[in-house]
Amino acid sequence: MNSVRRLLAASVITIQNSCFIYPACQKCFSRLILDSRRFNCLKCGCTGEAKDASYRYRLSLKIADTNDLFDITVFGSCLDPFFGITAENLQRCIQDFNHLSGEMNTDASPGLLVQAVEMCFIGKRFIFEV
């Protein structure tokens, strides 16, 4: 893998999916497998109680500079200022909202949240480190 990083000024064309957070292993940041009681990390073997799972931001974007299109994913707390809340607290808000609204998919992001994220990012220009 090439370890040379560069800065890329590009505009966001679209948000690739509406799932902005994921349960993340505290050791290796991989996606956790959750069931109703436990979590398990397939990468490093970390396990624990589902209620203790940590959450992390994952924003998949299609971006364009003056010449090319790119698919990128932005991870972690660098997104806290855009959302105004940590990923763990946003997950609690989504769960509470879904519970109150009767949504069966506990990981589903409310439509208004998806629209707000689209308004915040689509058409805006950012500097990405790639």
Automatic annotation (TrEMBL):
Keyword flag Coiled coil: no
Coiled coil (UniProt feature): none
Start and end residues of each Replication factor A C-terminal domain: 9-95
Keywords: DNA-binding, Metal-binding, Zinc, Zinc-finger
GO cellular component: cytoplasm; nucleus
Top-rank taxon: Eukaryota
GO BP terms in the entry: negative regulation of intrinsic apoptotic signaling pathway in response to DNA damage
One GO MF term attached to the UniProt entry: DNA binding
Record family assignment: Belongs to the replication factor A protein 1 family.
Protein name: DDIAS protein
Species of provenance: Ceyx cyanopectus (Indigo-banded kingfisher)
